Amino acid sequence: MFAARQTFNLFQKRAFSASASQASKVAVLGAAGGIGQPLSLLLKLNPRVSELALYDIRGGPGVAADLSHINTNSTVTGYEANASGLSDCLKGSEIILIPAGVPRKPGMTRDDLFNTNASIVRDLAKAAAEAAPEANVLVISNPVNSTVPIVSEIYKARGVYNPKRLFGVTTLDVVRASRFISQVQKTDPSGEAVPVVGGHSGVTIVPLLSQSNHASIAGEARDALVNRIQFGGDEVVKAKDGAGSATLSMAMAGARFAESLLRAAQGEKGVIEPTFVDSPLYKDQGVNFFASRVELGPNGVEKIHEVGKVNEYEEKLVEACLADLKKNIQKGVDFVKSNP
Ligand SMILES: NC(=O)C1=CN([C@@H]2O[C@H](COP(=O)(O)OP(=O)(O)OC[C@H]3O[C@@H](n4cnc5c(N)ncnc54)[C@H](O)[C@@H]3O)[C@@H](O)[C@H]2O)C=CC1
Ligand SMILES: O=C([O-])CC(=O)C(=O)O
Fold this sequence. Notes:
By secondary structure, the chain is an alpha/beta fold. It has helices at residues 2-15, 36-44, 60-67, 83-90, 114-131, 144-157, 171-185, 219-230, 232-240, 248-265, 312-338; strands at 25-29, 51-55, 75-79, 95-98, 136-139, 166-168, 196-198, 205-207, 271-278, 289-297, 300-304. The radius of gyration is 19 Å and the shape is globular.
């Protein structure tokens, strides 16, 4: 028992190196799902979170009751699946994480999820714009390249859009990139950082190996690694064989991003995460959202970093990315126009 507690405490310390916390309410919409449950668990273990608010169309209160027995200080509340439940869940939130929606099955692209997830994200965004317009919104639901523009259009229509507070969560792409490169190079993944820019699907995921510790990787080894990073999600979809997509690694990635935002909000300087944001980098080419390294601060986005120096091979990857990304973003914008 003592050993178990020691292990648990050690996990908490390792997972989140917070010392003090100020009051931070974090809401999870889609909290009973494959991502929502482990994500909520990790947030319950994070001492920077003082209040955890869980909403789902089914099972929110059950997940909350379960997590509420964990002996960390935060309160956990599950909300009923109705309009007032959603609104109460959102009110006062500093961070709203959205993993609500359907996951892929083998043979599907993320874009194939659009028809179902676009309206789910739109409706949740409407509720968030109403109940907590100043919160940071972290969109996990796919296709991220389109769901993030959907949220921005909903906020714009209500006059509450703040581009510094809207984030598409692309953390899993860099988590994978550092793990995959460490497997090839036989190194410790914690020492590997591969910038990944662009968007979050297929060729819109652009790993910049030339900016990693292993810039000299070339030829087939480079192509295979880039392909694995771009299509890492498919590996999990295939292995789960109809039972969904990445959930546990995504929960870790989402919790890491939320932790980074809380660290930045609580005054830490120099907190940088890759994320898909309203970005000036390729606006001149009609691409209004783009993932790159972003410095976070108390107001959300503090500074959007340039892509930086890329080689000829990566230039081509960026070109292919921009073409797809532009269409994905437009699809989200058009959806809200026709389905406000
Ligand atoms: N951004 C990223 O890197 C990643 C994104 N995803 C995406 O995350 C989403 C969720 O994936 P999973 O958790 O595996 O799916 P899941 O099906 O296990 O869970 C989704 C949850 O959302 C809930 N839900 C559906 N409509 C809702 C609504 N209107 N309000 C509140 N809750 C609602 C469902 O009841 C369910 O509990 C998918 O769209 C998936 O593609 C998955 C992995 C990585
Ligand atoms: O592949 C999927 O559908 C889920 C996802 O976004 C990922 O694992 O990166």
